[in-house]
Known about the structure:
Blueprint: H1 3-11, H2 14-48, H3 55-88, E1 97-98, H4 100-115, E2 119-125, E3 130-132, H5 135-152, E4 157-166, E5 169-176, H6 183-186, H7 206-216, E6 220-226, E7 230-240
Parallel strand pairs: 2-4
Antiparallel strand pairs: 1-3, 3-7, 4-5, 5-7, 6-7
Helix pairs in contact: 2-3, 4-5, 5-7
The structure holds adenosine-5'-triphosphate and magnesium ion.
Adenosine-5'-triphosphate is lined by residues 144, 148-149, 152, 176, 178-181, 185, 189, 194-197, 202-208, 231.
Amino acid sequence: MNEDVLETQARLSSLGLLAAGTAHELANPLSVVKSGLEYLDKGLERVRADKGLSKGAREELGECHNIVAEMKEAVQRMLSITAELRLAVRQDSKTTECDVRDVVEKALSLTHNMLKYKAKVEKQFKHSSLVFGDESRLLQVFINLLTNSAQAIAENGIVRIESDENEGFVVVKVADNGSGIKEEHMKRLFEPFFTTKPKGEGTGLGLFLVKKIVESYGGDIQIESKVGKGTVVQVRLRAIARG
Length: 243
Ligand SMILES: Nc1ncnc2c1ncn2[C@@H]1O[C@H](COP(=O)(O)OP(=O)(O)OP(=O)(O)O)[C@@H](O)[C@H]1O
Ligand SMILES: [Mg+2]
């Protein structure tokens, strides 16, 4: 692996590594809680089926069942967060070379359902080099960016993806004319768990992971935005001339 990239990886935020380590440690106990709750839920159902129960007892068990269902949902959410964080620092991803165009096209087809009713997608690819990075991780990057654009658009949106080459980097811009980002939020976009979305819609890990992945390949990310106008996310990835 290229030395610059190793250095960048070494500099990766210790906060991220700590978060991933913690996530790893939490996955097992959370699984225990999850299977315990499933067992409890079945037990409650069995008891509730008893014909001899008083109305009051049946209502009480119904309430317990609702609480267990909420807890199961909460545990599932915690497990998804731990899975995402663990994926972010997975060491086994292959660092190879790939064509950003293929990656973007794949990301677009995977997010097609989210975008089709509310936005038109425009593309213009002007790069020719390959980029340094693993295709499946870079796919995660563009899925996250397109998802954010889709979520920022109410209707009649435009999502524009452009690529170019500059100073040894392939530069990809993902632009949307969605809600835009408030000035006071700009500094916090890459913080883990920073989200402005309603509970259940966003975990606030998207851009944190995107930045981590892009930087692990020696690239960088920049975001510009204006409330009411839209957002432009620029990702730069190291170019490798086609051999
Ligand atoms: N294209 C965009 N347009 C408007 N706001 C955006 C855009 N991209 C990101 N944001 C803002 O940045 C916040 C953080 O984004 P991020 O992708 O990290 O988390 P999320 O989308 O809230 O949750 P997750 O990606 O984990 O589902 C969002 O909640 C939103 O406020
Ligand atoms: Mg997101």
